[in-house]
Amino acid sequence: MAQSAPTSESPEKTSPLIGYVTPHVHWDRAWYLPFQQYRYRLIEFVDELLELLENPESNYPSFEFDGQTVVLEDYLEVKPENRSRIEKLVKAGKLGVGPWYVLPDEFIVGGEALVRNLQFGHRIAEQFGGRSDIGYVPDPFGHVAQLPAILRGVGLDTFLFTRGAGKWVADAGCVFEWVAGDGKTSVTAVKQTPDYPCLMAWGFEERQLDAKNSSTVNIDTAMGRLQKLIDGLEETYNWAPPVVQLGNGSDHTMPQPTLPMLIEAANQHFAGVIELRHARFGDFFAAIKQWAETEEKAGRALTRYQGELHQGWDRALLSGVFSARLYLKRMNDSTMALLTHQIEPMAALAWGLGGRARPESLQLAWREVLRNHPHDDICGCSVDATHQDMEIRFRHAREIAAMLTDDLTKELQPLFDLSHINEDAVPFLIHNPLSVPWSGSVQVDSPVPDEGRWQSMPTARAILADGDGAVLSNLEITPPQWGLHIHSDRVANVKLPKVSGTIEVSELQPGWHVIHLLPGIDTTPPPAQPVTSSGGEGGWWMENGLIRAIFREDGRFDLIDTSTGKTYSGLGWLEDDEDAGDSYDHSPGGYAVAVGAGKDVGLDERPDHVGRRNLHDDANYRSEVTISACHSDEWSATVQIRIEWLLPRNFNDDKQIRSQDEDWLSIEHWVTMRSGSPVLEVDTVVDNGIDDHRLRLILPTGIEADVVRAGGAFEMAERPWHFPHDSSWNQPEVPTKHMRNVVLAQDDVGGLALLAPGANEYEARLGDDGALELCFTLLRSVGWLSRDGFAWRRNRAGPCFPAPGAQCHGHHFIRWGILPFEGSWEDSQPTISGHGVHEYAESFGAQIALIPGLPKPQLDGSFDPLPKPGQLGTRSRTWYLEGEKPMPIASACKPCENGDGLALRLWNPTSTDWHGVLASDLVLCIEPCDLLERPTNQSPTGQSPNGKHQPSSGGDGTVGNGETVKAGNVEICVPAGGIATFTMR
Fold first, then answer.
1. Strand order in 243-248's β-sheet?
2. Mean of the pLDDT values across residues 961-966?
């Protein structure tokens, strides 16, 4: 949403335009070459750069290293002896590093990962002498709406970018105030014109493949290149300021020693028109801020823009990366959830009670994850070897997490009262990391003592010690079997019985709880109206008083919201399209660009698919559907739907049609309904052996609306469902968009939400009934890193390398759910949980920790006695919220980066400020901080305090505004659309 500046014109320019020429490099750690091959080049690059910057005769004042710091680590792993040289250059202002660790795809990795990325970048840059204080994000494929708040949160007030703006940016003169979701926080944003490599290989226009460190450049073509840029500033971009930033560098290009000479030649050639200066990003923004201040005083304030930057007016946006190699996105989401939902809260509780904070070990795990977040990596648009390396890094992060779990478990066990009156009881700790109660299933697979009733009973049950929730167990006890148990210095092979199965949990309150397993049968009544189900000749159905699902023979189902009586019909039908695109973009067939043709003309209209298959509408296509019952009791019921679908084996590029050869695609849904839950849960497995296609699940909503809401980075983004096709754009907008955890459509009565943990892709489109359909991508298969062009993109986005791994053969696991709701998405819903839709989405994707309470067994199979009851009893809340529903969402509860205290991050996607109490069962002092965990000048309630909250020895104290509070209990405000972070010490 852009708000234009006043229409009064700026005074005519009487002085030459000042061009700040910034030499830089954009360094992909991996892309069309894997990491080690690019690092080989990086060593040569940095060696040459250091010599250039250190040589006083080179007349080369400075260089910017792409806004990221990971390249310093990559280089110094090979050449640690050059660390002092780099430090000297950074401190002297000759080498700009940071503020990021890596340059990520912002949409896919999500808000919390962006914060960790900037924390890493700041910490590493400080070790070398300080970061470049510019929000530099050149190449990623669009920018999330909350990036202004994230940048401001780490002390940055500027933003320099290339991709994502619509044509409105020219009306704004390419400089604007970008406003975050709270409507207040903003950064000064500048659109690079036309892009970050606008003066790359300057003077090499005729011989672009020559080494850029060559002294042989063509002055005439260099001046012609600059003239075109100057012309474009006015003709295309309506450039407003008297200064402009020009980037000399691009992807993996060597620094140009000839740059000073070219600048001098240009200043002679263009005297009175433009004056070039070798400069850093900071020099340019100092001039921009001075100009903007002058303009504001004259009544010509910058245009204000609020919302995401995700349009392809002058640069391709490459939205197909949201669905390329979806298996990588799911690995990333599950690994980050493991760290944020399980490991870090364990470490936070341990530190809060006197244990070690372990920031170094946590950062070690996060480093592996963040090194998978560069945009070409996490987007899935690289050669296969690059993405195979990513799987190894995710595995390494999980291995570190496993060791942290072991370590922290030993520390947490003595803190709780794990005892039970029944000697057979086996204790566990279960943790709900959310701000609201949680319901769902937890898997159990654990050894138990080979004694007592564990030797004679076939089943076991679970009991919550504090009763803060309800549980039902479906657990089996297996006979003793050999198993390996890893102790601190050796492995024990011990023969013990095992308990395996699931524990159904309802309304588990936030925080840590003791739960016991006991031999026996569980007969716990359901928490709400029982689930009933039936199948066979009378048809398959299930209901729980809140929703009713009726299954059709063709694999679809109808869902009835019993609170409103509304029926959502024909949900879950399957659609399969040809994919003539590549890892950057999906595309229909029928419009191929000849290899080597370069940029092609745009299409007047967005073409449709030539080979779309609809499983449920076309009887000519072969398929087999079977439905069977898997489980049914009063707590829950599960139905399995198995679909075998005969589809074209691949896409014929020459004929631009799908092949005549066919093969079977297998889809299995496990559909579960729980007592008290309005969410119909589905676990889907796709076994794919088909090439060049996109498989989607379709949910007809029956809702007429102009917009949908989709979860994002610290927000619920509002987007239109219809995107006009403008053939004059570099890449007209495509209808597929990103979602995190949820996408929904609603009207004045209520709506329908699709829940899917983590990063996913959706499309909202108009159905035959005139209402919206939500299309959810299960799988996208392509065989190329990039191609020369096709219907949805007119030219290549990268080198045309084969990438057979992007066909994504094999099994793919997708978790999703459907939530009908009454009223607005941000209202508390009329269920036993009472969550807003966004809270249900967050809860649906939560990873609940179940931690063993017993020590590991000795070689003889015995277990040491339980530790004496600790200070926490059977329940502990490191933090919790009290106030009106819906609650803010927590994205992190972790030890501080410096090891001194805990950090808690909350965000509020609703349109209403949230006022309430942030409390803790621990004796901790709470104060607000920024995203780098530094104290701010704000009180927790948002008012400017006179001092910090300092508790007295009795545990009472004041927040700076004079309120009296208890330590560990303070009134806070999380503003509408805002992010709030607190330290607890």
1. 243-248, 17-23, 274-278
2. 37
107-121: average pLDDT:
98
Provide the token pair at 353.
Answer: 């009670």
pLDDT in tens, 870-892: 889 999 999 999 999 999 999 99
- Measured in residues, the chain has a length of 985
| Cα–Cα distance for residue pair 777/222, rounded to 1 Å | 46
The answer to whether the CB of 896 falls within 8 A of the CB of 357 is: yes
Q: Which of 407, 424, 416 is nearest to 460 (CA)?
A: 424
Instruction: Write a three-state SS string for 674-740.
Output: ECCCCCEEEEEEEEECCCCEEEEEEEECCCCCCEEEEEECCEEEEEECCCCCCCCCCCCCCCEEEEE
Nearest in space to 27 (alpha carbons), one of 15, 16, 17, 41: 41
CB-CB neighbours of 807 under 10 Å? 22
Q: Are 110 and 717 in contact (CB under 8 A)?
A: no
Residue pointed to by tokens 């050796």 = 490
Cβ atoms within 10 Å, residue 647? 23
Could you tell me which of 555, 104, 693 has the C-alpha nearest to residue 372? Answer: 104
Residue 575 main-chain phi, psi, to 5 deg: -130, 135
Q: How buried is 398 (Cβ within 10 angstroms: 0-12 exposed, 13-18 middle, 19+ buried)?
A: middle
d(CA 684, CA 888): 30
Q: Dihedral sign for Cα 518, 519, 524, 530, please.
A: positive
Element (H, E) at 369: helix 359-370
Residue among 644, 656, 686, 649 nearest 776 (CA): 686
Distance CA 277, CA 956 (A): 58
Residue position matching structure tokens 């604007």: 176
Q: Does the bond joining 194 to the residue before it have cis omega, within 30 degrees of 0?
A: yes
The CA distances from residue 293 to 188, 240, 300, in Å, are 11, 14, 9
SS3 411: helix
Side-chain half-sphere exposure of 39, counting CA atoms within 13 A: 14
Query: Which pTM does this prediction carry?
Result: 0.95
Strand stretches in 269-346, DSSP E: 274-278, 303-306
What is the percent of the chain with per-residue pLDDT over 90, rounded to a whole number? 86
Mean pLDDT of the chain: 93
CA distances from 160 to 140, 195, 282, 702 (A): 12, 10, 11, 42
Burial class (CB in 10 A: 0-12, 13-18, 19+), 197: buried
d(CA 186, CA 304): 9
Tokens 């595995």 sit on residue? 395
Angle between helices 359-370 and 326-337 (to 10 degrees): 170
Report d(CA 813, CA 756) in Å as an integer: 12
d(CA 15, CA 21): 18
- And the tokens for 979? 């992010």
pLDDT tens by residue, 668-718 = 999 999 999 999 999 999 999 999 999 999 999 999 999 999 999 999 999
**Which residue, chain included where needed, has tokens 């803010």?**
888
Residue 205 — φ and ψ, nearest 5°? Answer: -60, -35
Nearest alpha carbon to residue 246 among 290, 277, 211, 208:
277
- Nearest-10 Cα torsion for 563, 565, 566, 568: 90
**Distance from C-alpha of 501 to C-alpha of 495, rounded to nearest angstrom:** 19
CA distances 732 to 165, 606, 632, 766, 864, Å, are: 12, 9, 49, 19, 66
DSSP 249-279: --BTPPP-TTHHHHHHHHHHHTTTTEEEEE-
Q: Tell which residue, 371, 367, 333, has the closest CA to residue 35.
A: 371
543 within 8 A of 529, measured Cβ to Cβ = no
Nearest 5°: CA angle at 439, between 350 and 696? Answer: 110
End-to-end CA distance of the chain: 40
